[in-house]
């Protein structure tokens, strides 16, 4: 496969080297969190139908380097009417399985089946230690439920003598909770959590912009130093950046990830999965969903190895696109109004992506501590 880039000829041999397959089996959710993408996007809601799900799994069997299927996206997987059928189907076919969940619908029976089936990874969402004060002040009414789910899961793992599933917790750091992050890490260690992922907020409206920590308004160095010190005794931590740095690194591209939406459309990452507004350092922008194909029409392997998708991944990996975030013209340039195209002709545009600056993180279950692949 050859294509031109800045007058140079780029030659790439496409490979079926997809390693992590993220499935948004539904974009519905049982909660209505104030700062979630779902409250602002333009997309319709839906569940992945069973035939499409089986088609995706069949396609996945053609990918020799695939390490894990991960139920994620923007939605709560457990609200799917056939959620447990899907879990069983993935494990019966011999795939490793991970997922992100708010935990509310994962009752004791489901958690016990997770352990028996050998579900590999589960990340729970939690943004505060579930004390009475926090529940009232921050509105994190699910934190206590998640605590109970984690305790039960640890108990079941001990009962069956299993190391699976590995338990992670995702935390979105804001001005409301950043001071308690070290205490939260110690609390999660006590619960038996294996991994803590600390990400940042992407404001979806200007009203939420004042909550971000990466605009220089807060010195996060003491907090991060405490977290690194705690991490030596567990849990393992992935901590976002809290200031803009020069390096650009896309976890999705570098780790060979793709995302299949509930309707079969295939996306390179979470950012382009839906159409929604975002606010980048006070500047409003529209993110437009960008698919590279639909698995109803082509195989996942064909889409992954298509010229358009291969070219996109090469450009992202080479950082061959403009840095809109710190461009002096970003307040007057029309290209930064949406992600359709940037001033270098790249489409879709990653120039304003906070994931690429590692300010925003998502679970990428690559190997650490001998627990993930």
From TrEMBL:
Gene3D superfamilies for the chain: Aldolase class I
GO MF term list: catalytic activity; iron-sulfur cluster binding; metal ion binding
Alphabetic keyword roster: 4Fe-4S, Iron, Iron-sulfur, Metal-binding, S-adenosyl-L-methionine
Cofactor: [4Fe-4S] cluster
Top-rank lineage group of the source organism: Archaea
Signal peptide from the UniProt entry: none
InterPro entries referenced in this protein's UniProt entry, alphabetically: 4Fe4S-binding_SPASM_dom, AdoMet-like_SPASM_containing, Aldolase_TIM, Elp3/MiaA/NifB-like_rSAM, Radical_SAM_PqqE_MftC-like, rSAM, rSAM_sf, W_rSAM_matur
Radical SAM core domain segment(s): 15-231
Record-linked CDD domains: Radical_SAM, SPASM_Cmo-like
Record-given protein name: Tungsten-containing aldehyde ferredoxin oxidoreductase cofactor modifying protein
């Amino acid at each position: 496969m050859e294509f031109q880039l800045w007058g140079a000829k780029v030659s790439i041999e496409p490979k079926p080297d997809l390693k992590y397959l993220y499935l948004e089996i539904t974009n519905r959710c049982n909660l209505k969190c104030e700062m979630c993408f779902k409250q602002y996007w333009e997309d319709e809601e839906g569940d992945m139908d069973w035939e499409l799900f089986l088609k995706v799994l069949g396609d996945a069997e053609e990918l020799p380097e695939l390490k894990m299927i991960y139920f994620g996206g923007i939605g709560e997987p457990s609200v799917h009417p056939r959620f447990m059928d899907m879990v069983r189907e993935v494990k019966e076919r011999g795939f490793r399985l991970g997922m992100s969940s708010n935990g509310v619908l994962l009752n004791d029976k489901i958690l016990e089946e997770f352990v028996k089936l050998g579900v590999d990874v589960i990340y729970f969402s939690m943004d505060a230690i579930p004390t009475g004060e926090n529940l009232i002040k921050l509105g994190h009414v699910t934190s206590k439920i998640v605590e109970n789910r984690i305790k039960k899961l640890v108990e079941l793992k001990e009962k069956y003598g299993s190391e699976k599933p590995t338990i992670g917790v995702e935390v979105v750091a804001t001005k409301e909770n950043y001071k308690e992050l070290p205490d939260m890490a110690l609390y999660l260690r006590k619960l038996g959590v294996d991994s803590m992922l600390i990400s940042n907020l992407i404001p979806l409206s200007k009203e939420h912009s004042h909550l971000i920590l990466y605009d220089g308004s807060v010195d996060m160095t003491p907090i991060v130093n405490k977290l690194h010190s705690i991490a030596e005794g567990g849990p393992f931590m992935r901590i976002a950046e809290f200031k803009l740095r020069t390096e650009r690194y896309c976890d999705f591209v570098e780790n060979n990830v793709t995302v299949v939406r509930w309707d079969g459309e295939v996306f390179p990452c979470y950012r382009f999965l839906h159409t929604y507004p975002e606010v980048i350092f006070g500047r409003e922008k529209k993110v437009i969903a960008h698919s590279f194909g639909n698995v109803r029409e082509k195989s996942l392997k064909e889409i992954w190895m298509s010229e358009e998708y291969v070219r996109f991944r090469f450009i992202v990996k080479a950082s061959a696109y403009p840095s809109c975030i710190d461009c002096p013209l970003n307040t007057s340039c029309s290209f930064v109004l949406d992600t359709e195209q940037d001033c270098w002709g790249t489409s879709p545009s990653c120039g304003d992506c906070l994931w690429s600056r590692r300010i925003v993180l998502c679970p990428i279950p690559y190997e650490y501590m001998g627990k993930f692949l």
